[in-house]
Amino acid sequence: MTLQEIDKNYVLQTYSRNYVNFVKGRNSVLYDADGKEYIDFGSGIAVCSVGHANPRLANAICDQASKLIHVSNLYLIEHQALLAKRLADLSGYDVATFFANSGAEANEGAIKMARKYGEVEGEVKRYKIITLEHSFHGRTITALKATGQESMHNYFGPFPDGFVYARDIRHVYDLIDDHTVAVMIELVQGEGGVQPMDKDEVRELASMLKREDILLVVDEVQTGIYRTGEVLASNLYEITPDIITLAKGLGGGVPIGAVMTTHKDILKIGEHGSTFGGNFLSTRAALEVLDILEEHKESGELDHMLLLFEKRLKHIASCNPAIFEKEVGVGFMRGLRVNEGYDAKDIIEAAFEEGVVVLKAGKNTVRFLPVLTITKEEMELGFERFERALSHL
Ligand SMILES: *Cc1c(COP(=O)(O)O)cnc(C)c1O
């Protein structure tokens, strides 16, 4: 049996897979088993924040694995404590953090916190959570119900009650009632098609919610950890959410999720937990990722590359008006909206042939989520190949 046959026979087929066999990488470069080289503009869906095979991250993981990987949350975990402090210091928010293993799981934690808040704060029990259409919050039953894409709810009900979907931020106001406890949003919708929210609208919503004692939950699973150029997109939007969730880029590829909240004693001992969450390995990796990215930001290199990347993408959009409607996004979370008559899938395949990895988002957007430590040379090479792919369409 070939590897592909083994995969098809033994792995549950829930993904539409490209059967390339990647075997190694270096920063933005990936190599397959045939030695073909690719520029990675996807970074494992915003996960490989410090690049592939980052030597500092690899060393931290090896060193930690040779000492302790896991002891359970029954004991003090040095790096977990330090990571929680680091997240508070870097974000500038007065928060405490719970550690989970994924984005969906972080959002489940956030929803539990909100539900507890609605139970104990105020006269009537509040449980309703408003989310946005086209949002994406994960694949577990509750995170899926929170996801404002009805087509993804097929087959899996009955779901937990109490989720309602707003068309956009302005529509949130119409849905609030006495039972509303939280509004949960992405500041830049990722899976939904790279859609940034309007800053003034978000800031206005945040202050209204504060006045009404309704929690603002910001799902930063994709936008968090410098993806938008700031530590958190919440920093960029200049808001102070009640709860922020993180995952994707935080561990640089090691699974970790986090729920940060200003309501530090909303959950009591025994009310939430995780076997793996925040163990030695993942928190040590995340600390190293934050060290690397903080230095990268402080040096000015991150902001410099963000601007170059944006400029190049805008240029490609304006030079190919037949194919692309416009360039969208923030920081290193960007996309090209594809015009009717062209299919993002064909563009992604053509790019892949030329040796550049890009992703799809929403209905028809080509998505770019480069590694945050991308070099100028890698970027130029990637865009050269992308342009060559467009010329073959
Ligand atoms: C990817 C993503 C999730 C789900 O994360 P998993 O780790 O796959 O569970 C949730 N919210 C947003 C905004 C995401 O981009």
Task: Write a concise synopsis of the structure shown.
The protein has 13 helices and 17 strands. By secondary structure, it is an alpha/beta fold.
Give me the secondary-structure category.
Answer: alpha/beta
- Number of helices in the DSSP assignment: 13
How would the global form be characterised?
globular
Unreliably modeled segments: none
Largest sheet data = 7 strands, mixed
**CATH superfamily caption of the largest domain:** Type I PLP-dependent aspartate aminotransferase-like (Major domain)
Gross CATH architecture of the largest domain: 3-Layer(aba) Sandwich
Terminal-residue CA separation: 35 Å
CATH class call of the largest domain: Alpha Beta
Q: What is the tally of beta strands? A: 17
Helix content: 25-40%
CATH topology description of the largest domain: Aspartate Aminotransferase, domain 2
Domain count: 2
Could you describe the 3D structure shown?
The chain is an alpha/beta fold and 393 residues long. It folds into two domains: 3-54 and 299-391, Aspartate Aminotransferase, domain 1 (Alpha-Beta Complex); 68-298, Aspartate Aminotransferase, domain 2 (3-Layer(aba) Sandwich). Helix content is 38%, strand content 19%. It has 13 helices and 17 strands. The protein has helices at 3-10, 43-46, 55-65, 78-91, 103-120, 141-146, 169-175, 199-212, 233-236, 280-298, 301-319, 344-354, 376-391; strands spanning 22-26, 29-32, 37-40, 96-100, 128-132, 163-166, 180-185, 188-189, 195-196, 215-219, 243-246, 257-261, 324-330, 333-338, 356-357, 359-361, 365-368. The strands form four sheets. It has a seven-stranded mixed β-sheet, with helices on both faces. It has a four-stranded mixed β-sheet with strand order 1-2-3-15. A hairpin with a 5-residue loop joins strand 8 (188-189) and strand 9 (195-196). The longest helix has 19 residues, at 280-298. The chain is globular. The model has no long low-confidence stretch (mean pLDDT 97). Pyridoxal-5'-phosphate binds next to helix 5. Pyridoxal-5'-phosphate binds at residues 102-104, 107, 136-138, 186, 190-191, 219, 221-222, 247-248.
